[in-house]
Amino acid sequence: MVVADGAPPVIEPKIAPPLSETIARPSPPDPTPTPILYTTFTRSEKRLITLLLGLATITSPLTATIYFPLLPLLRTHFHTSAQAINLTIIIYIIFQAISPSIFGPLSDSLGRRPVYLVTLALYVAGNLGLAVNKDIYSVLVALRALQSLGASAAFAVSYGVVADVCVPSERGRMLGPVSMALNLGACVGPAVGGWVAYTSGSYEWVFWALVIVGGILWLGVAALLPETARSVVGNGSGRKSQSWWERSWWSMGKHWVKRRKKEEREKPKASPGDNGTSRSFLERCRIQNPLACLRMIFYPDTFLALWMHGSFYTVDYSLVTAVPDIYKDIYHFNELKIGLSYLPRGVGIIIGGYCSGKLMDYNYKVTARKIGWTVDKVSGDDLNRFPIEHARSRGSLWLLAISTATLVGYGWVVGGQAHVSVPLILQFIQGFWGTYFYTTYNTLLVDVFPESPSTAAAAASITRCAMAAAGIAVLQPLRCGSLGGRV
Description:
The protein has 487 residues and is an all-alpha fold. Helix content is 71%, strand content 0%. It has 22 helices and no strands. 46% of the residues are buried.
């Protein structure tokens, strides 16, 4: 409106807004709630954890397989029989079962990191004693038990760590590299043991090398491995409220540099989804019932998964303990060649570990697509509603037929003294598929016991080691009689 100079302003009447605009509109609906994160560990942290898990769990297969080429040397050095030296293998297997039953449940309550540090320290002590023991057979047996006690818990604890930081649909992605690194010991161990036995004619340097390996791994875990147990740090957010001495050395250094005084004044609040507890370290130190994992064995579905897992481990262990006798008596290999004869199996295990992780995740996605399930990669799927048993066991019948045919063929070609390349190729195939079976079914056990994954892995360790010990005890006299009759 234009107003002339000096004229009073003209007030225009206000037009009432439409009635529809004066009625109060309903408030917009609340935004979708933020999904609860299954884990706050970043991708780079998971990569570091994967590397540390693989290196920490290498102790068990490395220690078990590096020992096999030394068997003839130990028989001569300690002036004892093959059955007496094989007793040290059975003792090792027995403590392979005992160790996870103690330290697996303990890691579920106390935490993964302190259990790793304690068991690696026991491992170093056992190897140190074996290196300085010269001629006492009873000490050899006792120290093999201590060595196994320290080395064998890492398997169960590592599966617990994977369950802590990975949603079910992506666990294969982490377990694949862990299995590759873990089974690198199965590949390298026999070759190193055979080379040392052949070049030096002495076993002490093998155990000194294991002392060095154990010491380096202890330092790596102490410096870099964060706590992951969900009972302690929840989805990872509870790490900020840990005491300084419960953290990794790297985390302690960052904490010291970044406004230490302010963090002490203001206690961090737990983020949504943090399931960690506020129990003190001493309260968490209560040792769980080591028989808790035995109860899991008697559930019908768990028993079937354990049977599949343990059967393939028993077959694999029976094969590797027979290799020194087979290749020495039939193919007349020396200690170095006996050690190298384990390489095809080791390569098969490494490749099988990688492929197993990929195949597990693929089977999970295929199963979800068939039932119209949307995979939740943020909060994790509800496995009470998802058919995880079908996802993990998909295709097992075909693979079981292939593995069984390989095993029968191995016995046939060895009995017929076929060319040495044939049993070596079959060892590669058996290592590949054997790894798939006991990795997949052990993962299934962890899936169905999400609150106590390391306890579930301990149940698997008890079952497979008991079956392997029984298998070796039964098959050893039969094998010795068969080979003795041939040569």
